[in-house]
Design goal:
Helices cover 44% and strands 15% of the residues.
Amino acid sequence: MATLSRESLHVSVWDPVATSMNFLNEVADRFPDAISLAAGRPWDGFHDPADLPRYLRVFQDHLAASGMPPDRVGSLLMQYGRTNGVLGELIARQLANDEGISVRPEAIAVTSGCQEAMVIALRGLCARPGDVLLAVEPWYVGITGAARLLGIDVVPVPEGPGGLDPAAVAATARAVRAGGRTPKALYVVPNFSNPSGRSLSPEARLGLLDVTEAEDLIVLEDDPYGLFGLGDEPRPSLKALDRRSRVIYLGSFAKSCFPGARVGFLVADQPVLARDGRRTLLAEELSAVKSMLTVNTSPVAQAVIGGLLLESGCSLRAASRDKSAFYRRNLRTLLRALEEHFPDTAGRRVRWTVPSGGFFVVLEVPVPADEKLLELSAERYGVLWTPMRFFYADGGTHALRLSSSALEPGRIGEGVARLARLLADHS
């Protein structure tokens, strides 16, 4: 029998962060009655399988009304399809309605979740061994995991108390160049980022675009939480502000619709010039990468999302009003519970961020927030959370992330109370 050394396998197989995320899932499975302040998923109450046939029918009727013959409608749903998908026109309308992003449908590639969009964009941009990705730290583990799969080095750009400073991006890019490597792209979540919950100020957004022009960087803008602010003040996306084709927009329907469809997209409208003078769009060129990964995104899943978009008039902001109200209430409930169970006394040893929206709050705690403490928390105190060290190259040892998205408000308060007992007993 062939026996393989674990260390002989690719690093992505035994990467500590990847195995740590598996550990989180394993702990949740072992303690199903624990209150999960770890899960950053949408609330189950918004999803009803009975809606799926209706969405499919709405999309089929849309195709028929556009003049598509019935046999072609059936083929579109049941056969292999166009590599970059069939939702380009509807997504372009949604982006114009909700984000003020004006883009041609040909610049949109529909992907199997936003995770695939990250892999495709990174593979296309980072072509040489010395090409690296800059990422705002603390970072979403999906982007660092994608880079690890592809053998692309990630260099952290530290996020300060006030969020990302564009000057830090410039300094990091220059340091990478001075070391003989090439910074190709910057990954950033401008609205209520995962895990920190911080957002870029309007001034920082404009400054960041100036820096990317000066440093010849492409921005990978990921915005899964932008619909869920505590207020309704506008937060222009980097792509809407982009006048120099510096931004690739990574989109997801996981939070705004539902994760099970596994439909995401990327907007890559950068012109590409071939040696023979032929001009294309980057999204069209990247389709070659996608064709080798998943061939095409499930047409049935696309049809379900297409029907949902059509029902909402291609406005996820309009379709997500109830969700926005729910997540706002939950985030406020979480912040109130923290104030109640960790009162503001002299020498407070537990501190937390106060985000203006999204799903996440980060706590600084006086003890190492590691896997050992998490397992104890689940087993004896009945509450789950996420160690922040998963989101750093080196750091976050005394911090944890709480999520407010997947619970009823009453459960949030009880979860924080259990966490407070854990920290009181082990600080």
